[in-house]
Write a structure and sequence with these properties.
single chain; about 220 residues; alpha/beta; TIM Barrel; 8-stranded parallel sheet; about 45% helix; about 15% strand; globular; binds 3-phosphoglyceric acid
């Protein structure tokens, strides 16, 4: 397991960020860090994503990833901006190759056993399961995991704080992803103290859970 995987497995939670305003990026990263969550997956869903990654990356203590990476050329842009890992909503062989060529961890999204096998063949050991809740949530993970005992999951999509402990108690789950920690409206409204509070609340649950980097198959 790489250092980045270990760090994510120790935090157990990846805040998924959709942000429009570059000026809010650094305060947001600091708010997450103040809540005990020095980590963010900044999605390439907004025009400002790359600039926001760059602004957040000025604090080296923030473990920054780029999410919603759909095309290989976005990998270079994300890494150039300061991202240290890449997340994709589905499996793209081109994006995976671009990440591997840069020796950067990539967590491709999977929804089926076929996509798990594609990821496995590509040498991936950790996948995002997306959209986790709509696919069947923990029941889906429990059904999907047994043939893939060498792989770990980052379920994301529709997961709320109330479900966090249950997901984290399942050993193949390395970490959980979610946007509830930093909702777009709180970011836009500069309610960074509330984001710190949401992060602290989630971190308390993560700390009570088994260490993701140490558990699993
Ligand atoms: C993602 O991009 O990973 C998801 O949109 C996050 O899902 P959530 O907004 O339901 O937490």
């Amino acid at each position: 397991m790489t250092d980045i995987l270990k760090a994510i497995g120790a935090l157990r939670l990846v805040p998924v960020i959709v942000i429009d305003e570059e000026e809010n990026a650094y305060p947001l990263a600091q708010a997450l860090k103040a809540g005990g969550l020095p980590c963010a997956e900044v999605t390439f869903r907004t025009a400002a994503a790359e600039r926001c990654i760059r602004a957040m990356a000025s604090d080296p203590e923030i473990l920054l990833g780029a999410g919603t990476v759909l095309r290989p050329e976005q990998v270079d842009r994300a890494l150039e901006a300061g991202a240290r890992y890449i997340v994709t909503p589905g499996f793209s062989a081109g994006v995976v190759r671009a990440c591997q060529a840069n020796s950067v961890p990539v967590f491709p999204g999977v929804a089926t056993a076929t996509e798990m096998q594609m990821a496995l063949e590509a040498g991936i050991e950790v996948v995002k399961v997306f959209p986790a809740e709509a696919l069947g949530g923990l029941a889906l993970l429990k059904a999907l995991a047994p043939p893939f005992s060498m792989m770990r999951f980052i379920p994301t999509g529709g997961i709320s704080v109330s479900q966090l402990a249950d997901y984290l108690a399942f050993p193949p789950v390395l970490a959980v992803g979610g946007s509830w920690i930093a909702p777009k409206a709180l970011i836009a409204g500069h309610h960074f103290d509330q984001i710190t509070e949401l992060a602290s609340q989630a971190v308390a649950i993560c700390q009570a859970a088994p260490d993701g980097a140490a558990t699993g198959q």
